Amino acid sequence: MTDQLPQTGVPQGKTQQAPSGEQGNPFAGFSIGAVIALVGAILALASYPLVWYIAKDDNDATINGFGSTHSTASTEVTFESSKIHWAVLAAGIGMLIVVVARFIGRYSAEWVRPTFIIPVIGVAGAIVSAVFVDGAFKLGIGVYLAIVGSLLMLAGGVIIASLKK
Description:
The protein is α+β, with helices and mostly antiparallel strands.
């Protein structure tokens, strides 16, 4: 007896597979959110070697994101602060992991909550670092870059988690 072809064009007893992309991971493929989050993470991480705080009395007396100080002959700078500014660094690294997972197709529904939480922690750390600065200091470019990077991570994370494909 010969195989009869059903109307679908597949011989009886054989299964038809959907073309790739129609099944599987709904988060697979290009994501503009991942690109935005990647840019934000890079900016947030790049802010650490830059100046975060500048002494009001002496523009050459500074503190960078790592906590390293630069004192001058007229101003001695010491860094005594909470470690909340490290939240931006942690969020940047966390979002890099999320972005890589999204780019290589390993991102799944279980990643949605961390994709929202990680950048919120970064935004909180950057804003607290900007608001609770000692009165003897003014903000440097590093803090502003950390805020912008954290906000971009948040925007990218919302897009990644909200849009499937």
